[in-house]
Specification:
Elements lengths: L2 E5 L9 E5 L4 E5 L8 H5 L1 E5 L5 H4 L2 H8 L5 E6 L3 H9 L13 E7 L3 E8 L6 E8 L3 E4 L3 E9 L3 E9 L2 E4 L1 H6 L6 H10 L8 E4 L2 E4 H8 E4 L3 E5 L9 H8 L4 E5 L7 H7 L4 H11 L3 E5 L9 H8 L7
Parallel strand pairs: 3-4, 4-5, 5-6, 16-17, 17-18
Antiparallel strand pairs: 1-2, 2-3, 6-7, 7-8, 9-10, 10-11, 11-16, 12-15, 13-14
Helix pairs in contact: 6-7, 8-10, 10-11
The chain binds zinc ion (2 copies).
Amino acid sequence: MKIKPRLGGGKSGDPSLYIDIVDRKRAILFDCGLNNFRPAALHKVTDVFISHTHIDHFIGFDALLRLNLTEEKIIHVYGPPGICRNVIGKLQGYTWNICQNLRLIIVVHEILPETIVVTSLESWRGFEIKQTEEQPHTDLLLDTGEFSVKYLELDHKTPCFGYTFLEAESCNVRKEALEELGLQPGPWAGQLKAQAFPTADQDAVIQIDGMNYSLDELARKLLVRKPGVKITYLTDFLLHEADIARIIEFTRYSDFLFCEAAFIEHEREKARLTHHLTAREAGILAHGAQVKQLVLFHFSRRYQDHALMLDEARQEFPWVE
Ligand SMILES: [Zn+2]
Ligand SMILES: [Zn+2]
């Protein structure tokens, strides 16, 4: 898959991370603050994962709703305890007496400590609650087979969820091996990947140009495993010493860690009071989790000079943007 993450509010605007799954005509959002995403981008959104419902993380939900109302689609909204009340509160802020042409369904997944409450709301019924069901609790909120999303609870004086997106492992055909075997690329390569990954049936056979080959043997010679892209999003939390190990575990080997850095160490007290992170702490987490790239955001507007936060994080971890 081709995956492109981008922030919708820049470094000091409201948090929203758009993960575009380019070749699947699908996108997911981590948080939904005021953002600069185009309507076409918001049309692609199928799943929204909300960290917490402070206004700067949730106000953009209205634009998402507005743009998708007449689309025949489902938008799933996931979030911490209270998310269902928050979504319904937004919907009840509008009048829905003429709604017969609306098509959107919103399904809210409220993650409680021991269960997940799933509530369906249909636009053409004025978003009256259609049904509510309880599912067993899991930290794996979404698994499409091609990618998955997990959450981790953080402390922001209210439960605040961090999220991680993980593309499933896939495989590529090694060109050199293809030449060594004297094979020409063709549709059979797709068939090989589909049938032989992650494991091949020992007795299965694949036909190429009229010749039979052992699927398992060909897979072992030709295919190379490609790890999936991992993107972790952590925002709005106090870093308790006791939580560091579990946050690092959750974030480990991310290709991108999008992490808030509201304050600099010099103003650590302000960070403590508002349950936010400092840039140095973001750097420590990135270093501990051995991520490839740390992307800082949610800078307090008090800092005109973004280099303050970027340089501070770089003292702990080199690859910061
Ligand atoms: Zn907040
Ligand atoms: Zn915030």
